[in-house]
Structures are given as structure tokens and as C-alpha cells.
Design brief:
single chain, 289 residues, mainly alpha, MetI-like fold
Amino acid sequence: MKLSRRLEGQTLRKLEGSLFIAPWVFGFLTFVAFPLGFSLYMSFHQVKITVNSVNYTFIGLKHYREILIANGSLLYEELFPFLRESAMMIPIILVFSLLIAILLNLKFPGRTLFRVIFFLPVIFSSGQIVQEFIAQGEGSLSIMETLRIDYYLQEYVPGAWAAPIQKVLGSFVLVLWYSGVQILIFLAGRQTLPAAVYEASRIDGSSPWSTFWKITLPGLVPYIFLNLMYTVVDLFTFPSNPIVSRVNTTNYGSSSALAWIYFTIILVFVLLTLLLYSRVDKSLSGSKR
């Protein structure tokens, strides 16, 4: 009798859990899984829209071959320079966010106001606004013209890297403007570190520099990789991304193929980030033992 009641209770709890998660499952299948599957289907077809219907002609990997081989300029002249830009933006954003979060964690007058100021761009900025700022050159550093940095980059840096570096410096202020979420995550992570550890460090005579490298930075490793993951995904939807505009075309088959190629590249970056995190986490776990 007790066993049957226990089984009935477990079944009831499972049913309640299923009911709570059902709206999310329905929304995921309807608005995420189905569009993804349908875009994959279209990437293997030539899509032609007529007045009465939509015709799908199977062409196999033709769209993929055109993008990767026949029309390789899209990847080599637009995507690869953007990936180089991202490789430079990511460490800049992470280091800037970490330093600002540590400063905002200190007690000083107006701390709450400064926290709001650093997060406001995330709330008010949109892709169109950022694009307009970039077009007007408002995100650049005036010191570039004063010190003729553009000239030295073109003269002494290989062309494959000179253009991405110039573009990053040309929108440097906007890159930092996009650091609000990362600052918030680092700030939350810093506040999880117990104050007793820092008190013990001060009693032992550790300097602030030593405390940062031996306590703060190791304690923030999970948040560093969380921000790394977020920044990677966020940069791949950055307004200056040349691939996003190429995806939004009326050639649905080719656009779907390009979107899946782009998705694969993003997935590789995410998997590399996870692999790096797992190795660092194992290394830190081993050192703690």
C-alpha cells in the first residue's frame, strides 16, 4: 500500500514537472527546432517563390560548393578578416570588463551610479545606432590620427592583420561600450569570493598584486570562461558583421547554406572554448589537491 502511494506521488510529481516545462518545449519545437530544420532543408534546394506556391528543387551540395569554392571571396575577403577582428576584440573586452568590475566592487561614493552608467549602453544601444556611430567614426580614438598609427600599421604590419587592427581601433570606444554584461557577470563573480579569504591574505602580509593573482583571478576562472562564451556569441552578431547582411537575402537556399556554414564556425569556436575551460578547470583542480 505504501509502495503504491509512493509510486503515485512520483508519477504526480513527474506529471507536474512535465506540465511546467511543456510551454518551453512547445515554444522550442515551434520557434527554434522547426525553423532550424527547415533552413537545413532549404540549403539543399533551389527555392523559387511563385504567385501560387513555393517550389523546391533538390540540388544537393551546390550552394555549399558555391560558397566554399566557387565564391570563396565571401569567406576569405570578408569572414576571415572579421574573425581576426574578433580574435583581438575578445581579450580587450574581457580584460577591460574584469578591471572595471574589480574597481566597481570597491567602496567609494557614487558606486551605484557608475555601475548604472557602465550598463546603460546595453539597454539603450541597438544595432542601427551602433552602425550609425561606426559610419560617422564616433567610436575611433583621436590618438590614432595624432600619432599616425594608421601609417605605421600599413607600413610595418602584414596586410592580413593591418586592416582588422585598424578596424578594431576605429571602433575601440564602441567595443568597450559593449562590455556592460561582462562587467555585470564579473562583478557578481567577485562578490561570491568570501571576504574572510581576503582578510586572511591581508593578515599574512600579501600585497594587493599578489592577492589578485593568487585569490581573485583563480576564483573568477568560471566567470572568465562564461564571459568568453558570451563574448564569442555576441561578437558573431555584432552590427559590423559582414556575414549577417549576406544571410538576409531573397535567395533562401543560398542564404540557408551560408547560415549553416556560419553556424558551424560559431559552434567550433564554442567547442574550443569549452575544451579550453575543461583543461584549465582540471589543471586548477589538480593544483588544489
